[in-house]
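ENTRY TYPE: paired fold submission
RECORD: A
CONTENT: sequence, then structure tokens
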Amino acid sequence: SFFNESMLRQKKRSLELIRMLRTAIDQDFQGFYLLYQPQIDGKGEQIKGVEALARFQDEEGVPVAVTEFLPILEEHGMIVPFGKWVARTAMQNGKKWLVRNPDFKVSINASALQLMQADFASDILRIAEEEGFPYKNLIVELTESCAVENLNIFMDNFLHLRQMGVHVAMDDFGTGYSSLQMLKDTPVDVVKIDRSFVAEIGSSEFHKTFISFVVSICHTVGIQVCLEGVETQEEFDLVKNMQLDYIQGYFFGRPMEKEKITEILQ
């Protein structure tokens, strides 16, 4: 390919981000912070838990998109310490919410690279022990688009977590190339239906049928279902009678500071 200025700018940006992220991690994760998106019961009446979402801002205080910094963390060997920081921070904040609601759940996302680490489950359990966070209140989310052939690598970690009472969720369900195969082969407690099925629910009978089908098949085998991406009253009206266990989306709240979650619980 021929050289052009945009290639140089992109490479400079990538190198600068690598430097910033390494510096941030070395300085006790300075610049990283967590926001929390509420997860509401299927009737839309009560907050049942939150999903912890990582954010990063550079030295100038400018936010960096997750889609930009997360691949760099994965590609350059920083995702494992970063994942431990996310888990510990989410549990430290979550302990305060359990005082208000002992059944409150805190979800953290796990990269495929993290789950391929032999000691991933042991690390999560150790952090929970150190922070005094009950296993039963923690949910570890796996992105459903992970390659099927890698599932055997994850299995020991999944089984270890579940045996100790930690819940496991499959994120982005419905977007991968073999969703039902993954559901059959992966021991999960919660399935999160991807937001793309909500976007057209008002005009697509297929999307409504798909959501109802997933709820039905999951409940038959004891799996809970969370629907992501509910943003309007109309969308909520269409799904509130579908027997969903959780609903997540901008209609109930954007990702917010930990203090706001505390206010909601109070």
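RECORD: B
CONTENT: sequence, then structure tokens
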Amino acid sequence: MMQEDSYKSDSTLRVLMVGNSFCYYYVEELYELLMENPPEGIQEVEIYNLYYSGCNLTQHFTWWKQNAANYDLFKVDASGRQQVGTDTKWSLEQALTLAEWDYISLQGSAKGGSYMNPALRETTRQGIVELAEPLLDRFHELHPHAQLLWQRTWFFEIGRVGSNGYVYTAEDGPKYNAGMQEICDYMCNEFDKNKPYDLKMVNTGAAWTEARKLNETANLLPYGGLCGRVGINKFGDKSLHSGDGYHDGDIGGGQLLNAYVWYMTLTGNTDLSASQYAPVYKFLNMDCPLSAELIDMLKTAAMNTFK
């Protein structure tokens, strides 16, 4: 899905992800997938995370208006992941002007309203538009050739324990996910109709929904979040932080699933069958490769999301 490339002065694909921890994990896997089968004319890839833990849209907007340097900046390329300026904090404007970006993504939630309650979703949608619109307009102003991306993040599993101790039930989880999808669909189908850019969705949340459905029949338990509430995973982990289904920051299938969705969104290549990439993770100094069966399931989940 490369934009017209006449403006590019080199063969490096550059991606800037603006967000919280949902834009941090799985980036090494994405780099490997892009280098395994890069877009035409691309010889190298650089992915940057402008990162602040737990950052929401209100914080992004406020810090941008204040030109506040509160973010860490990480870069993933052929040398792996490294922090850019270990003693340096970055502002959004500094990151935006650091390079000629080919892709810029934004993610985050807005306070108020509700994803789960249809009657309150309009409040949520209005809050997101109010905060995201000036940010996305600025992205496009500085980088008119860049493809702008809206990342759907959260996916709530049944049994997920919220920060307030609330446990999502078999009825609540699907309601939340449907509400999140409805608002993301609006951002990428209605919000951008009169904009000079076409906002594309990185739909990791939908892929998680599909992966859970497939897992219920395949009974393959990825390490970490995806099955934290379905059953005990390979390492017996049923801790609370394993239950949110997307935020898989330790090891395993969640990171690869997210990378698949990003790869397909960036390249437009929605056939993962030829990919031979099989990451090996570390746990307690042990090598923990993903099984071929699990990788196939994650590929299927990601590809089904694009049908």
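NOTES ON RECORD B: The chain has eight helices and nine strands. The CA atoms of residues 113 and 122 lie 7 Å apart.
STATUS: closed
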